[in-house]
């Protein structure tokens, strides 16, 4: 390992700004780390080392000339392979798109490049982002750096494993039912699903238009804030892009949680849960209280409907997106993915609209509770990283048996359906050494407060600073 | 949406699948039938939720109505 592997954006940026370190050194270490870890982790579909070195040399020249652009200048990142990258194939995890080479960057990739960051490569993912486990028969399954026989979770699986392994301090993911927060939880990272519409999805292969969110995974809340300062922009090319007042993620990052009211849901989130996860999350909530937050019980019984409804929306909207293509080219899809998409053809328009009515009711419940609290705190995942071999079957937990995919989206999808910002931060480790995630949820467009609370928690704990061996 | 619909029979599934352009050998169609039953079971749970008096609300990017 290089001494640079696993450093945060904030740590690298200070050395780059002061010219103690060159972007070229950072890029070389990053590429070397990617190649060294790839046989064990399978994080990448395409490594773009040559392009990264060209960009790093350009960044080096700019910084040397006194044109420092900001904290992301000279910082490597990794890109889930459904973000379009100009001149670099973008497979969306499917053989059906293995020859697709976009002629433009996704807006978020462009914004990161304009900030001076450069991509090390396109990361592995679940096909079409349609699996929370990271399962992919086309490009192989990524392995969790904390335990190679465990799943890293998906669908932003390769981004999770690459950032965890220290290839780059930050990566891009998408989250339709938990696909940023699940790998963040299973891999010990900090991942933010921003408010729906805050981050552009132009040039991002859709899974489900009304549920898809793009956002960062990193080691720390501070790095998430530095990245979000670049990504949170209105984009007229995304029809769902919102026009909130500009959000500044870093000015109030260190304001702490004193005086904030944090709600702990009474219903649903504690019903199906591993004991070690519950203990760690409850201790994290106690830590937030010691930092000055007021912890209150919050009642949101509507959450129980959200996961089921989100599943209906996902299959229906993915069937609409893939439509004629899955009929024409379905043999190129993984057959499990194909069937899940095709099953959406059987959902009636009446049921789809019924799901939208349920969405209204869940939104009313969340709006009610957020009239009483500033944040919600809950577990991100009911379990720690699960063995790879049960990805397609069932998980036994507390005497019950649950389809693994349903169990893994149980606590995350509930915050996709109404677009609330939700972050996962590491809050402990199991006795077997696997990370546990705390989920913090905020009001729409109060993403910065969510990140601020996570930063306060990370100032009092060191879970986020732990790295897997070698 | 409290009205209960009859369970999808294999025959009805195959007829609807054909109309939708979904074809394949028996093994593939059996597997798609099982997947479809799982999806429809989830949909049935959504249909059973009492939404009387509630209008559908596709997500609003500006959250004017939702929050």
How many DSSP-defined strands of chain A? 13
Structural class of chain A: alpha/beta
The Rg value of chain B, from CA coordinates, equals 17 Å
Question: How far do the termini of chain A sit from each other?
Answer: 7 Å
Low-confidence stretches of chain A: none
Question: How are strands sequenced across the largest beta sheet of chain A?
Answer: 1-3-2-4-6-5-12-13-9-7-8
Kindly report the greatest chain-chain contact and the residue count on each side. A-B, 48 and 33 residues
Cα distance, first to last residue of chain B? 25 Å
Provide a descriptive summary of the structure in words.
The complex is a heterodimer of chains A (470) and B (67). By secondary structure, chain A is of the alpha/beta class. Chain A is built from 13 helices and 13 strands. In chain A, strands 1-3-2-4-6-5-12-13-9-7-8 form an eleven-stranded mixed sheet, with helices on both faces. In chain A, a hairpin with a 5-residue loop joins β12 (422-429) and β13 (435-442). The radius of gyration of chain A is 20 Å and the shape is globular. The model of chain A has no long low-confidence stretch (mean pLDDT 96). Chain B has 67 residues and is mostly helical. Chain B is 49% helix and 0% strand. Chain B contains two helices and no strands. Chain B has helices at 10-20, 26-47. Chain B starts with 9 loop residues before the first helix and ends in a 20-residue tail after the last helix. The model of chain B has no long low-confidence stretch (mean pLDDT 85). Classes of the chains: A alpha/beta (470), B mainly alpha (67). At the A-B interface, α9, α10 and α11 of A face α1 and α2 of B.
């Amino acid at each position: 390992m290089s001494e640079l592997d696993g450093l945060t954006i904030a740590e690298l940026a200070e050395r780059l700004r002061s010219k103690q370190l060159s972007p070229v050194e950072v890029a070389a270490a990053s590429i070397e780390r990617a190649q060294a870890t790839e046989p064990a982790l399978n994080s990448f579909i395409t490594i773009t080392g040559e392009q990264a070195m060209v960009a790093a040399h350009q960044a080096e020249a700019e910084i040397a000339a006194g044109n420092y652009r900001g904290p992301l200048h000279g910082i490597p990142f990794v890109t889930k392979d459904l973000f379009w990258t100009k001149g670099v194939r973008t497979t969306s995890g499917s053989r059906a798109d293995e020859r697709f080479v976009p002629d433009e960057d996704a807006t978020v990739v462009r914004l990161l490049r304009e900030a001076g960051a450069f991509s090390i490569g396109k990361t592995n993912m679940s096909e079409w982002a349609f699996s929370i486990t990271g399962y992919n028969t086309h490009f192989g399954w990524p392995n969790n750096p904390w335990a190679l026989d465990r799943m890293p979770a998906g669908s932003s699986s390769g981004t999770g494993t690459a950032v965890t392994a220290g290839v780059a301090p930050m990566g891009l993911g998408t989250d339709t039912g938990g696909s940023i927060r699940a790998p963040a939880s299973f891999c010990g990272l900090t991942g933010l699903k921003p408010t729906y519409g805050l981050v552009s999805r132009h040039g991002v292969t859709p899974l489900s238009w009304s549920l898809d969110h793009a956002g960062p995974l990193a080691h720390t809340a501070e790095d998430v804030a530095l990245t979000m300062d670049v990504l949170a922009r209105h984009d007229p090319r995304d029809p769902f892009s919102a026009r909130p007042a500009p959000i500044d993620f870093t000015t109030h990052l260190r304001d702490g949680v004193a005086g904030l009211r944090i709600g702990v849901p009474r219903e649903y989130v504690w019903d199906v849960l591993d004991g070690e996860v519950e203990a760690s999350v409850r201790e994290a909530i106690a830590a937030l209280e010691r930092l000055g937050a007021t912890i209150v019980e919050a009642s949101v019984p509507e959450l129980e409907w959200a996961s089921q409804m989100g599943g209906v929306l996902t299959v229906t909207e993915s069937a609409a997106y893939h439509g004629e293509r899955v009929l024409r080219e379905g043999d190129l899809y993984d057959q499990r993915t194909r069937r899940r998409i095709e099953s959406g053809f059987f959902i009636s328009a009446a049921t789809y609209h019924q799901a939208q009515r349920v969405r209204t009711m869940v939104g009313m419940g969340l709006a009610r509770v957020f009239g009483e609290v500033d944040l919600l705190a809950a577990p991100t995942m009911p379990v720690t990283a699960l063995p790879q071999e049960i990805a397609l079957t069932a998980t036994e937990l507390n005497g019950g048996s649950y389809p693994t995919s349903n169990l893994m989206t149980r606590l995350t999808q509930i915050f996709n359906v109404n677009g609330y910002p939700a972050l996962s931060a590491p809050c402990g480790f199991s006795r077997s050494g696997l990370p546990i995630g705390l989920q913090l949820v905020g009001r729409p467009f109060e993403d910065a407060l969510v990140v601020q609370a996570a930063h306060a928690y990370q100032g009092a704990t060191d879970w986020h600073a732990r790295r897997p061996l070698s | 949406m409290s009205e209960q619909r009859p369970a999808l029979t294999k025959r009805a599934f195959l007829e609807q699948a054909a109309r939708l352009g979904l074809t394949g050998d028996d093994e593939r169609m059996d597997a798609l039938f099982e997947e479809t039953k799982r999806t429809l079971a989830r949909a049935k749970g959504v249909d059973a939720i009492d939404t009387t008096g509630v209008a559908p609300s596709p997500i609003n990017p500006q959250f004017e109505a939702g929050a």
